[in-house]
Fold:
Amino acid sequence: MQNYEIIWNSVLILCPGFIKIHAMLKRIFTFFIVFTSGFLFFGCGRSSVPSKSSATSEPAVKGQSLPGPPCIIYKTKADYYHLVPVILSKDRSHITSFPGIRDIYYKGHLAYPDSLVGGFLLDNRGIGPDVAFLSYTYEAYGKLETSPGSTELWKNILDKDPLLEMYQCGNKNQYDRPKDTMNEIIAKDWLKECIRLK
Structure:
């Protein structure tokens, strides 16, 4: 209040002709200052660009279009944690994608999924709803001298339909700690905010 009183008094000194309408202008001037201050306060206090989610509130993860790998969580019918995944055709009649022996690493380590609450896993390999699992473990696969071809791998598929559930929860790059965030999403029953793939 003191600041705009000083401004107002300065206006009166410089423009003495305004004295006759002093009361009316002062009310208008006061309203303008208060309104402008409130607008700046609330406008500056809110950002239109969301920060990376930590799941402190229910996340809006559907339709995320940030660049980077999708954040895939899934649950399987049996324990395939140590087994190498491949991708099948929609009719599950042949292999469409499989890793080379050097492609089974994630950040310098074997690309095992991260274990989550409720029996879910967080993918680190790049799988989707058409995944199948081989009888090869990551360790055994990485020790092969050459990468097997699709025909050989087809003979070593252990399960062509291993999934119980699979969700895409946005993009890994939108989370500071994807594993922690996915655990919170599962624990707080926020999976409805993810895209169900299976």
